């Protein structure tokens, strides 16, 4: 079982150009997208979050169920669902503004225990910024790591939600001893101001950097770097691409029985290249269609 912990929200995606263009609601949130992608790939997956009991919240849970994701660990609340208004650039890149005050997901409380058979827990995005939920997710991360559970982190920086950048950077560094696999975008790395080698020295067994159309690179503690190019595709938008990479990495590692720091060290050049190519292909499929629509296993095995 892979557990994904973090927010579920509604993306409002523009359906054309202009400030007053119509907005299409879409299921989203970095952790939510990761859970759906894992479910579609066929990995046993559970979602750990707090979701509104409003109509958007019901739609979010239905999306998880349709992907085969276990929602028994999802907390519910009467507060509204978080909204993220997307802006799509000419190259398909997405940026967001958020409506988060008083919403359900930020009132998450850490569960007493993880689901049975949990092998890995994935964290990231807004859930590690917005209090009081951020501290609860942080508690869950540290507890899981202390219990020997494989942990992954994708900070997926949303700078507009971070009131004190320096405090967040310090907090990010404090998480690293509890992280086995750190995945982040080139833009996130620049914003955080560190390097893969510095982060590896603080705890993770591997760091994966996504570089958009230029591909992915994995850095490991032995000083190695393994890179693959991006898959050529006609980009509709990049919504959910990084989340798909998270899911593909976890799914691929689980398939290799490599959800441990020691197993990451033993992957070797061929293992890392195969894993990164799989992730690049999965992300390319997501980029080829509107919104966060990660691929099914059948689309990657064809």
Write the layout of secondary structure elements.
Elements: E1 2-5, E2 9-14, E3 23-28, H1 30-41, E4 45-48, E5 50-52, H2 55-66, E6 75-77, E7 83-88, E8 94-99, E9 120-124, H3 133-146, E10 150-154, H4 165-175, E11 181-185, H5 186-192, H6 196-202, E12 206-210, E13 216-220, E14 225-228, H7 241-255, H8 261-265, H9 268-287, H10 297-301
Parallel strand pairs: 1-4, 1-9, 2-7, 5-6, 9-10, 10-11, 11-12
Antiparallel strand pairs: 2-3, 7-8, 12-13, 13-14
Helix pairs in contact: 1-7, 7-9
The main sheet orders its strands as 4-1-9-10-11-12-13-14
Q: How many E strands?
A: 14
Largest sheet: 8 strands, mixed
- H-E string: EEEHEEHEEEEHEHEHHEEEHHHH
Helical run tally: 10
Q: Which percent range describes the beta-strand content?
A: 15-25%
What is the general shape?
globular
**Would you tell me the structural class of the helices and strands?**
alpha/beta
First-residue to last-residue Cα separation: 25 Å
Unreliable segments of 5+ consecutive residues: none
- Radius of gyration of CA atoms, rounded to a whole number: 18 Å
The averaged pLDDT comes out at 92
Helicity level? 25-40%
Task: Describe the protein's architecture and organization.
The chain has 302 residues and is of the alpha/beta class. 36% of the residues lie in helices and 22% in strands. The chain contains ten helices and 14 strands. It has helices at residues 30-41, 55-66, 133-146, 165-175, 186-192, 196-202, 241-255, 261-265, 268-287, 297-301, and strands spanning 2-5, 9-14, 23-28, 45-48, 50-52, 75-77, 83-88, 94-99, 120-124, 150-154, 181-185, 206-210, 216-220, 225-228. It has an eight-stranded mixed β-sheet with strand order 4-1-9-10-11-12-13-14, sandwiched between helices. The protein has a four-stranded mixed β-sheet with strand order 3-2-7-8. Helix 3 (133-146) links the parallel strand 9 (120-124) and strand 10. It starts with a strand and ends with a helix. The mean pLDDT is 92.
């Amino acid at each position: 079982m892979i557990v994904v912990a973090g927010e579920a929200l509604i993306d409002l995606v523009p359906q054309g150009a202009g400030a007053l263009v119509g907005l299409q609601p879409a299921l989203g949130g970095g952790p939510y997208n990761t859970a759906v992608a894992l479910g579609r790939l066929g990995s046993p997956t559970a979602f750990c979050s707090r979701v509104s009991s409003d109509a958007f919240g019901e739609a979010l849970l239905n999306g998880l169920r349709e992907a085969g994701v276990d929602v028994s660990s999802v907390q519910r609340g009467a507060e509204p669902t978080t909204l993220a208004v997307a802006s799509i650039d000419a190259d398909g890149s997405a940026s967001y503004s958020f409506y988060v005050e008083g919403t359900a997901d930020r009132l998450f409380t850490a569960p007493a225990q993880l689901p049975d058979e949990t092998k890995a827990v994935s964290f990231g995005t807004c859930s590690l910024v917005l209090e009081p939920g951020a501290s609860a997710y942080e508690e869950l991360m540290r507890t899981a790591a202390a219990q020997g559970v494989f942990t992954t982190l994708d900070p997926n920086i949303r700078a507009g939600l971070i009131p004190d950048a320096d405090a967040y950077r310090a907090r990010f560094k404090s998480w690293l001893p509890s992280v086995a696999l750190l995945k982040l975008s080139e833009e996130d790395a620049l914003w955080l101001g560190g390097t893969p080698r510095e982060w590896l020295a603080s705890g993770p067994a591997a760091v994966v950097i996504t570089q958009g159309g230029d591909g992915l690179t994995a850095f490991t503690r032995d000083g190695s770097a393994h890179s693959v190019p991006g898959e050529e595709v006609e980009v509709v938008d990049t919504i959910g691409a990084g989340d798909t990479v998270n899911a593909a990495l976890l799914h691929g590692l689980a398939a290799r029985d490599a959800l441990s720091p020691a197993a990451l060290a033993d992957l070797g050049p061929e293992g890392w290249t195969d894993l990164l190519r799989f992730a690049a292909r999965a992300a390319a499929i997501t980029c080829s269609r509107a919104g966060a629509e990660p691929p099914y296993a059948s689309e990657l095995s064809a």
